[in-house]
Amino acid sequence: MDATPLDASNVRRAFRLIVKGAGLDPSEWSPRELRHSFVSLLSDNGIPIDEISRLVGHSSTAVTELIYRKQIRPVLQGGAVVMNRIFSHDPER
């Protein structure tokens, strides 16, 4: 079987060249790391989970939440903070 441009080894090789060309250490980065960083940056900057899910090509937000639960924690915690404020007994809320 002939290797295609999207063969896993070809993708990894091309990715390492791009990372090296960007001045980064290819041993510290993988396509998976880059994808997780992408999700983290979006989440940290308030992008809703449904938009993140669409951008990474998942069929539902449940898939995104399962795979990236550590990266999307700030979004989930943000919701908890709002709920605490809504249901707070503090008259100054």
UniProtKB/TrEMBL annotation:
Keywords: DNA recombination. It comes from the Bacteria. PROSITE patterns: TYR_RECOMBINASE. Residues 1-82 form the Tyr recombinase domain. The keyword Cell membrane does not apply. This is Tyrosine-type recombinase/integrase. It comes from Nonomuraea mangrovi.
